[in-house]
Here is the input.
Amino acid sequence: MKARPDMSEYLIHFTKGETFADAFGRFQTILSECRLVGGSGMICGEHRCVCFSEAPLPLPNGLVNKGFYSKYSPYGILFEKQWVFEQGGRPVIYQPRGEYDLLPDAMKWRHVTYEPPMVDFTWEREWRICCPELSFDPGVASLVVPSEADLEALVADHDAEQEAYWYEYSTVMAEDELRQFRQDFPWRIISLSE
Here is the structure.
């Protein structure tokens, strides 16, 4: 069965920030730690969740809603939907705030208030995992960046870091020993401008 073009097999966790530089800094921290930290902002109850969007690529400007302010930057981590599902991720339940208590306690973390026309976040196409943090590696995640220049900058930063290690250890190790420790850039990168 062919999927609809507005559906995606992937979920994206977009970073936030007051500026692109701030969002990119958070993105770099996520990559260095290989984990997403759950938050509780805009989530009813005391639940900590890692959130994603099911919006299909390409998204030239990231996850933005043209009619409203968007707190998301175009830097993100992309996962296969099936993997997120296996980790306990589920689509949120859009419903009026008054229906929150109708949900079983085990499902309340999925509630998102929906009271149109004033409160409508359905454009986020949100999924969540109820957890304090989600660890991942390059085998299950890809990087989403706004442009080819960002892609090239990430690879250049990695290469510069590898060169710095090479230089630092070249005084105590032979070149053939050093070669085995050199790491290629491990991430698959998707540019939103593609």
The CA atoms of residues 155 and 185 lie 6 Å apart.
